[in-house]
Amino acid sequence: MHPESLVTDHTIYACVMGSRAFGLATGNSDTDRRGVFLAPTPLFWRFDKPPTHVEGPAEEQFSWELERFCELALRGAFLSRVVHETFVRYAHGQRRKLDADVRNHGAPRWKHAMHLLRLLTSARDLLRTGVLTVDVGDRREELLEVRRGEVPWAELETRMNRLTAEAEEAAAHSPLPEEPDRRRLEDFLVRTRRVSALRAA
Question: What is the pTM of this model?
Answer without folding.
Answer: 0.72
